[in-house]
Write a sequence for this structure.
């Protein structure tokens, strides 16, 4: 069990000013029974990591833990030395280098180890995650999203796993920049088949970890890693995910952190898409392309990012808030869509224009409902942008 400290104390402002301070932070966080919350409370209560370390044995004794000893200095020195050897920088909470969004989550890491371009931490990020055994269409979607979002000015953050993560990183390196959040040490590449990619990211992007350099990742480390992926990003996009998967853990973290969660719909019979379909059912925004992601981000942030970029599509006005429809209004729109469709195919653009003239609905209102009706099997999409009513 972690040591119990008063929960009323808030995060401190002092940060390390010397190597000795950095070593004290490492020792405090790596001490037995000291987690993130306890670290910050000890630091706030005692004013510095050095004072907190001196107080730890008494705090432990009061909690019924006898013969308690903090993390030894030589272990902290070894971690610091391994990081320097790997070329990793220590970024501590409360310093200008620490990413602002990450500092706002409930349990931010007191420090992270970073290899690469740390300036990327201060640019807007979108997390792109999904299945390790992704389908061909899922990988194509991940490539398209990564490319378009990178070209729109976003940094793509993911977890360096096989499948969707790998594709997202590879494309973002070509089109822009990417951040890989590691479950183990920042210098320990997992899986091994992503060694070349990880080395490229360290040169042209950024690798991050809160774990000690040299640590081989274990299963318990991945959920902790996932909260950092969502914590760094303004929005989390799930491309493919099974009903029980790490991607859904990241999505839940994102919701807890107040981030936008979006998902790419998939075929109802494909288990790899069931998690995404569940997310959409429960309120996640549906993603057909990068513009849907940009639209989901608050107007001020979206404008900052794309003000110097060409629009990805002309369909939706970023500055016009999208009205929320009631269930009855949505059902009425579905009825009008189905009334205009029959066995003979109709061009999607023509349908949108006709419905817009009749109801005043914009393409941003109609397109998501076309996808929903397609997923329900009520309309059929045919080659050439044609739609028909299912028999």
């Amino acid at each position: 069990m972690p040591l119990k400290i008063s929960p009323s104390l808030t995060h401190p402002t002092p940060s390390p000013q010397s190597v000795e301070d950095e070593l004290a932070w490492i020792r405090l966080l790596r001490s037995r029974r000291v987690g993130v919350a306890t670290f910050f409370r000890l630091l706030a209560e005692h004013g510095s990591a050095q004072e907190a370390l001196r107080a730890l044995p008494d705090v432990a004794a009061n909690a019924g833990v006898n013969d308690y000893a903090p993390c030894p200095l030589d272990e902290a020195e070894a971690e610091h030395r391994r990081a320097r050897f790997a070329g990793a920088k220590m970024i501590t909470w409360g310093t200008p280098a620490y990413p602002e969004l990450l500092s706002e989550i409930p349990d931010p890491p007191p420090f992270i180890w970073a290899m690469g371009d740390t300036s990327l931490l201060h640019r807007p990020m979108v997390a792109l995650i999904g299945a390790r055994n992704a389908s061909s269409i899922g990988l194509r979607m991940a490539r398209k999203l990564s490319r378009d979002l990178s070209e729109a000015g976003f940094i793509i953050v993911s977890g360096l796993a096989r499948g969707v993560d790998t594709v997202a990183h590879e494309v973002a390196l070509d089109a822009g920049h990417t951040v890989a959040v590691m479950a183990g040490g920042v210098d320990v590449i997992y899986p091994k088949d992503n060694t070349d990619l990880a080395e490229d990211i360290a040169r042209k992007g950024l690798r991050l970890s809160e774990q000690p350099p040299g640590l081989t990742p274990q299963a318990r480390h991945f959920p902790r890693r996932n909260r950092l992926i969502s914590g760094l990003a303004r929005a989390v996009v799930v491309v493919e995910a099974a009903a029980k998967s790490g991607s859904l853990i990241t999505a839940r973290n994102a919701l807890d952190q107040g981030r936008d969660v979006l998902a790419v719909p998939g075929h109802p019979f494909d288990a790899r898409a069931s998690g995404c379909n569940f997310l959409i059912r429960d309120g996640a925004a549906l993603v057909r392309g990068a513009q849907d992601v940009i639209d989901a981000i608050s107007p001020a942030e979206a404008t900052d990012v794309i003000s110097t970029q060409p629009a990805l599509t002309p369909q939706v006005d970023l500055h016009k808030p999208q009205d929320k429809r009631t269930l009855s209004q949505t059902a009425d729109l579905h009825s009008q869509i189905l009334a205009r469709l029959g066995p003979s195919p109709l061009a999607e653009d023509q349908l949108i224009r006709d419905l817009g003239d009749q109801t005043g609905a914009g393409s941003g209102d109609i397109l998501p409902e076309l996808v929903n009706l397609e997923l329900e099997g009520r309309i059929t999409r045919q080659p050439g942008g044609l739609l028909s009513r299912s028999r």
